[in-house]
Amino acid sequence: MIEICFVCTGNTCRSVMAERIAKKMAKNKKIKDIKFSSAGIYAKGDNITENAASALKHFGYDGRNRKSVLLKKVKPNVIYVAVTNDHKRFISSKKCLSFEELAGGVSDPYGQNVEVYLQTAKQIEKNVEVLLEKLKALRGEL
User: How far is the C-alpha of 7 from the C-alpha of 32, rounded, in Å?
Assistant: First the structure.
């Protein structure tokens, strides 16, 4: 079982969107034995933003409410995927990479309109696609 945790600032937009996009993409590709989660380096237990939920629903992903989760402890057997290189610097793990290293950075949509969140979701999809392909290549056929 591979565990992947997406990490951003507050876990109300990008990382939770990445988690939900990854879950559905992996299921659609029939990739099993991967557990996805998300957390924020400054998460405070806030709900996913309304526009993040709307963008997820727009593209057919799970847009239900969820409280943000604080990244308290880095676990040795988890692969961390930081949304930006700045987030990566906060994660003291050799098993950490960033979206910037995969398929390009993902701008913070917080406080912006739903159109920006839709663009963010598309950027995240590209990164998750690259991540899943890399995992398949590393593991052979999952």
Answer: 21
